[in-house]
TrEMBL record:
Residues 12-441 form the PLA2c domain. It holds the Pfam family PLA2_B. The lineage of its organism: Eukaryota, Metazoa, Chordata, Craniata, Vertebrata. GO terms for biological process: glycerophospholipid catabolic process. Keywords: Hydrolase, Lipid degradation, Lipid metabolism. This is PLA2c domain-containing protein. Signal peptide: none annotated. One of its GO terms (molecular function) is calcium-dependent phospholipase A2 activity. One of its GO terms (cellular component) is nucleoplasm.
Length: 441
């Protein structure tokens, strides 16, 4: 996952919690205290297993959890239960994980003495994943609140619209609040890991980034900040602007590996649309039977064009899709649409009916009411589809924009536009607050 803007540059090595970047390859004071308190329990467990050793040469045993979404979460939980049953769990000094395994870890460390109750926690996790409902209103509420923050990103949406439906709970606690569960010696010391990645550069290796309840940072570079300060502004190694610590739900979205692949995001958005809007699926089948295209590849190419117009296809159809959706975004946010109309007309020059309708709409746009603009926009989409070939994504948007069609409820309009508009804005690094303002209305 991409970890950006978390640490400043320069500075001297301070005490671990004084509000500065700590430059050192030594363990943090919090980790030293936690592992020191854990040693007695580990020694007793090793002794019970017939392993004799002195404290100064005691092996540091770690359990490493792999990635794999819910499967990894459930697998790690089951593994820890069996380690407990076999009398091996107390020999573990560190519990480390990536991606789905971190979801299990963050669930367990809500409990101060989780190793003593790991079987009961497994049953609790099973009940939560199996029986807890998801509230779409809560998804929107959390995403809307996140949009008001300066560091709002696609990770916030992933946490709201993927992690919450997957885990069936919003964990609003903070990682730093798990200190009591790590320093009392009862539990192994947790290390959550991610990779700093630049999505605009094709590199094979990223920089390892660690999160613990005490500190977070780059172990390879020897640069850490207090976890309470993760996301705050630093300059020359000093804390300049304190910001609220991100909650566990956000971190669960960050630790999850899905955001590393834009194609996987797009596939998820397509599947999410299919799941939430059954009428969309029916309409797409109707388009297919009439000779149109109904494939995820078609949608994939279209959605790709939204984030990187022209990279996959430069035909009038794909470019037109991009500009029509961009027009909808601008109009919804109350922005000037003249530039978008100009680009759209340039694309449609070779398509007489679409071009003439676009010119007509653009010339009278400023004179229209909101309802009239919606109607004109829907007419433009229909002409575009008829002339350049029906596209299910635009047909769906048209049906939501036109009164009397398949579904014009605020719920359907809001969720579809959120998925589409957030994809456009987040991919372009734009501020998304305006989109959420429209959804609130």
């Amino acid at each position: 996952m991409a970890i950006q803007g978390l640490c400043g540059e320069g500075g001297s090595e301070p005490f671990w919690d004084d509000g500065c970047v700590r430059f050192s390859h030594e363990l943090s004071e919090g980790e030293k205290e936690a592992t020191g308190n854990r040693k007695a329990k580990v020694m007793d467990c090793l002794k019970s297993l017939g392993i004799a050793c002195a404290e100064d040469n005691m092996p540091n045993i770690a359990v490493l959890g792999s990635g794999g979404g819910l499967r990894a979460m459930i697998a790690l939980q089951g593994t820890l239960v069996e380690l407990k049953n076999q009398g091996l769990l107390d020999a573990v000094m560190y519990l480390c994980g990536v991606s789905g395994s971190t979801w299990c870890m963050s669930f367990l460390y809500q409990e101060k003495d989780w190793t003593e109750n790991v079987q009961a926690l497994e049953e609790c996790l099973r009940d939560t994943l199996s029986n807890s409902p998801c509230d779409i209103k809560e998804e929107f509420a959390v995403a809307t609140q996140a949009a008001e923050e300066e560091l709002f990103s696609l990770t916030d949406d992933w946490a709201s619209f993927f992690v919450y439906p997957a885990l069936k709970q919003y964990d609003m606690t903070k990682l730093s609040e798990h200190k009591d569960a790590t320093t009392n010696g009862t539990n192994p010391y947790p290390i959550y890991a991610a990779i700093e990645a630049n999505p605009w550069q094709k590199v094979e290796e990223g920089t390892w980034f660690e999160f613990t309840p005490h500190e977070s940072g780059f172990p390879g570079l020897g640069a850490f900040v207090c976890t309470e300060d993760l996301g705050s502004k630093f300059k020359n190694g000093d804390l300049k602007e304190k910001r609220d610590e991100k909650n566990i739900c956000y971190l669960q979205g960050l630790w999850g590996s899905a955001l590393g692949s834009m194609e996987e995001i797009i596939n998820y958005l397509i599947d999410r649309l299919m799941e939430i809007f059954p009428n969309i699926r029916k309409h797409w089948y109707a388009v297919n039977e009439a000779g149109g295209s109904l494939t995820n590849n078609c949608l994939l190419a279209t959605l790709r064009s939204l984030s990187s117009p022209g990279t996959d296809c430069t035909c009038a159809h794909c470019q037109g899709v991009h500009h029509l959706l961009e027009l909808h975004v601008h109009a919804s946010a109350g922005k000037d649409c003249e530039g978008v109309f100009r680009q759209l007309k340039e694309v449609l020059k070779g398509n007489k009916n679409s071009y003439l309708k676009c010119c007509e709409v653009s010339e009278t746009w400023h004179l229209k009411t909101l309802e009239e603009r919606i109607t004109e926009f829907a007419h433009l989409i229909r002409i575009f589809e008829n002339e350049l070939g029906g596209n299910c994504l635009l047909a769906t948007l048209c049906s939501l924009s036109s009164p009397g069609n398949d579904c014009t409820s605020a719920h359907c309009q809001g969720l579809l536009l959120l998925l589409l508009e957030l994809h456009i804005h987040a991919s372009a690094g734009k501020n998304c607050e305006g989109i959420f303002t429209q959804l609130k209305e």
